[in-house]
Write a structure and sequence with these properties.
This protein is α/β, with parallel strands linked by helices and 312 residues long. The chain contains eleven helices and eleven strands. Helix 1 packs across helix 6. The chain starts with a strand and ends with a helix. 42% of the residues are buried. It comes from Aquamicrobium aerolatum DSM 21857. Residues 4-227 form the NAD-dependent epimerase/dehydratase domain. This is UDP-glucose 4-epimerase.
């Protein structure tokens, strides 16, 4: 039995993790700015805003063996600002890291993202964990995950007694889940750039929850890409949804978005072209061979399950 503190426990991944932890003997503190909808009997809710000193207080009082840091802004809410997202993603992670070091926590689990590699023309396909993390400055989420990974790397060098499990997660799919990626699939036609098939890698929510549980307990420390086997290009996604493709030259889309965003017609600017051109395709060999977990659903199977859950 061990003590586990979770940040972002009210989110989708946190809820899946709490359901699994409810079947164990671990003592759990479920931290978030709002109380989780589901809370097992072995978990207690604690209000935690990672932007301040809430985490330090919780670590000092609870003395957890492991901290699972899930709090992050994946899909910014309406009215969100980049400064707010930076405070949650980067400052929040620094606060969690500092609290773990000061409190003598044994293990820290952090959900990073495949976006941390960035959207670059020279990214290998697929990307392994040894590839550089180069999240683009023009993409808040990718850039913040890069900054987070840099601070974690520094901590591994200066505080090796704190074990780290860093999970570079692909696009998460789950029953009836909607996010910025699935919004693309709900359009009347599937957008793609001429000459690019924009491959996506997916991880099913149940697989991810089991991976995070293993990371917080008996799994080995390290950095791991988290995705199901394989990838789906935009053309295959369109076929599976029974939709037509909308292929636009990169230059034309860039010019269109440069006009549309200032007018408020689109939330995306011309930088979004790189997002479609250079999708990070994650190699999951280390997850299977070293971490010891093979996702039950491949990328295709996760997509098919999501498609069925939303009634396509």
């Amino acid at each position: 039995m061990s003590r586990i503190l979770i940040t972002g426990a009210a989110g989708l991944v946190g809820q899946g993790l709490l359901r699994l932890l409810g079947e164990t003997q671990h003592e759990v503190i479920a931290g978030d700015i709002r109380e989780p909808a589901f809370l097992p009997v072995n978990a207690a809710y604690r209000p935690i805003d990672v932007r301040g000193d809430d985490v330090a207080g919780a670590v000092s009082e609870f003395r957890p063996d492991a901290v699972v840091h899930l709090a992050s802004i994946v899909s910014p809410p309406k009215g969100s600002t980049r400064e707010f997202e930076y405070q949650v993603d980067v400052v929040g992670t620094q606060n969690v890291l500092d609290a773990c070091i000061a409190g003598g926590v044994r293990r820290l689990v952090v959900t990073s993202s495949g976006a941390a590699y960035g959207y670059h023309a020279d990214n290998p396909v697929p990307l392994t964990e040894d590839c550089p993390v180069r999240g683009n400055a023009e993409f808040a989420y990718a850039h913040h995950k890069r900054l987070v990974e840099e601070m974690l790397a520094q901590a591994r060098a200066t505080h090796p007694s704190l074990e780290q499990v860093v999970l570079r997660v692909g696009t998460v799919l789950g029953p009836q889940l909607d996010n910025q990626i699935t919004a693309l699939f709900r359009k009347p036609r599937i957008l793609a750039l001429a000459g690019y098939d924009s491959p996506f890698v997916f991880i099913w929510i149940d697989d991810l929850a089991r991976i995070v549980l293993r990371a917080a307990t008996e799994g080995p420390a390290g950095i791991y890409n988290v995705a199901g086997d394989g990838a789906l290009g935009s053309s295959e996604i369109a076929d599976r949804l029974g939709k037509k493709m909308l292929r636009i030259p990169a230059g034309a889309l860039r010019a269109l978005l440069a006009l549309a965003k200032p007018l408020g017609v689109s939330r995306y600017g011309p930088e979004q072209v790189r997002f479609l051109q250079y999708r990070p395709v994650l190699d999951n060999c280390r997850l299977k061979a070293v971490f010891g977990y093979t996702p039950e659903k491949s990328s295709v199977e996760a997509f098919v399950a999501w498609k069925g859950s939303v009634g396509f």
